[in-house]
Amino acid sequence: MPDLSSRAVGVQAQRTSVDSRLGSGAHSLMQQNFGNIGNAQFQHVAAREVAAPNPPKVVEVAPRTFMIQPGMANVALFETDDGLLMVDSGCAGDGPALLHAVRQLSAQPLHTVVFTHGHVDHAFGLWAFLEAGERPRVVAHENLLDHFARYAKTAGLNAAINGQRPGANGRSWPSAPEDFVVPDVTFRDALELRIGGERFVVRHAKGETDDAAWVWAPQRRVIAAGDLVVGYLPNAGNPRKVQRYAEEWADAAEEMAALDADYVITGHGDCVEGAEAIRDELLTMVEYLRYIVRHALDGLNAGMRPDDIVESLVIPTRLAAHPRLQPRYDRPEFICRNVIRRYGGWWDGNPANLLPAPTALRAGEIARLAGGVDVLVARANELADSDLRLACHLAEWAFLADPRSSAVQDCYVAVFDRRRDGEQSLMGKLAFSEPSQRVNAQRAEEDR
Fold first, then answer.
1. The sheet that has 185-187: what strands, in order across it?
2. Is 199 helix (H, G, I), strand (E, B) or coil?
3. How far is CA 303 from the centre of its chain?
4. N or C: which terminus of the chain carries fewer CB neighbours within 10 A?
5. In what helix (H) or strand (E) does residue 113 lie, and over which residues does it extend?
6. pLDDT digits (tens, 9 = 90+) for 138-173
C-alpha cells in the first residue's frame, strides 16, 4: 500500500468545539457517524480552503478497488486498464487531499466519476481534479440537476439549519454556478458503463434524496452504495430537510441484498464486508423501514392524528437492537413523520393549529392562566427530573411568553440542555441545542 501519511491540504479555522454547541460527546458521535471530520470543516462544509483534520483513510477492499475517506464521506475508486472510475468526491475542502490520495494509488487517468447524489459532502470535491487537468466523464441521475438548483435557491436556509459559516469566497453554501460540477451524462433508471473491458452498473434509487444512485461492480463483487448504506439507521426522516423516501430506500436495500456482494463501500463510516454480514444488515434495514412505513400508513388509514401515530410507534427489539442500525443520526419517530408528511400533508389534525393564533400570544395566555412565567419555570424545573419531555413544553412556553426574563432564559437553556445531552441522535441534538442559541441571540440583542 502506498504511503498516505501526508496531511490534507487546507486551513483549519479557529477551533469552535462541536461539543460546546451540541453537548459533551457530540464531536465523538459525529466522528463515529462520519469518520474524518473536525470542528472547522463541520462549520465550513462548502469551503474549498477548509480541509478535514486528518489524512485520508484508504482501504483496499478488493484487487484494484479502494475505499477512500478524505473527510466525512467515503469515496469508492475502481482502477481499470482504461482508467479510474471514482464514485463521489467528498466535500469541497476534501478535493486536494482526495486528489493526492488517488494519485498515490494509481497513475491511471480519471476516466469517469459517478455522483451518488448531490449532497454537499458527496459531490463537491471534484474541482481539485479539474484544476489539475483531469477531464473525467461525470455521471449522475437526472434529478441531480434539480437538486443543485434547489441548493442554489435555498443557500441561506441550508446554511442556517446546518450551522454553516462563510468561506473565503463569502458563501456559506453552494449557490454560484462555479460551485457545481454539472454531469456530462444523466440517466433515469439504470446505466451500464464499460471501462477497461469491465461492466459497472449504475442504478437509481430514492432514499435520502430523489437523485440517489448506487454502483455495482459484478466482477469484483463490490457495491458502492453512497448514503443508501451508512452503518446506522437511515437518514429517512430528517426534520428540517426535504422529503425522504423510506419505501424506495427499502426497495433499493432489498435489491442490493440479492446481489450476494462481498463488500459494500458505504457513504459514511465503516464499510460492510462478507456476504452474510451484508445480507443481514440490508435485509434488516428493509424490514425496519417497511415496519415504520406500514405503521404510519395504517394510522393514517385509520384516521389517527399524526402525533398519535408517532407516539404509538414501537420498534420490535430484533430490529432496534441491530448494531448497524442504531439511531445515531436520525430516529424512527422522524422517519414515521416523514412518511406521514408524504401521504398526509403538513396539518397535525388539531383544528386550532390549522390557522393558529401567533405563538407568542398563545404562550402569553398560558403563562397568564398559570399565574405567570415564574410558575411555568418552577414547574418546568420540577418536572425535569420526572418528565423531561413535558418540562420542555413548559420551559418553551415561558420563553415565548417572556424572552427577556433571565430566570426564564436560564430555565429554557437548562431544561433543553438536559434533553440534548440525553439524546442519542445527531438530529435530535441539533434541535435541542436551539434554545441555547436563541437565548444567546436574545442576550446579545439586549446588550446592544
1. 57-62, 65-69, 75-80, 83-87, 110-114, 137-141, 185-187
2. strand
3. 31
4. C
5. strand 110-114
6. 999 999 999 999 999 999 999 999 989 999 999 999
Say if 2 falls within a structural domain: no
Of the candidates 90, 93, 100, the residue with the CA atom closest to the CA atom of residue 34:
90
Q: In this predicted structure, what is the pLDDT of residue 1?
A: 30
In a domain, 83, yes or no: yes
Measured between alpha carbons, how far is 90 from 176 in angstroms, rounded to an integer? 18
Query: Is the domain of 171 the same as that of 52?
Result: yes
CA atoms within 13 A on the CB side of 116: 28
pTM: 0.93
User: Is the domain of 298 the same as that of 365?
Assistant: no
Q: Are 260 and 402 contained in the same domain?
A: no
Task: Enter the C-alpha cell of residue 236.
Answer: 429517512
Range of the domain at 399: 357-447
What three-state secondary structure class fits 203? Answer: strand
Q: What is the pLDDT of residue 10?
A: 34
- Distance in angstroms (rounded) separating the CA atoms of residues 77 and 211: 21
Any domain includes 430? yes
Q: Would 340 be classed as within a structural domain?
A: yes
Which residues are 65's β-sheet partners? 62, 78
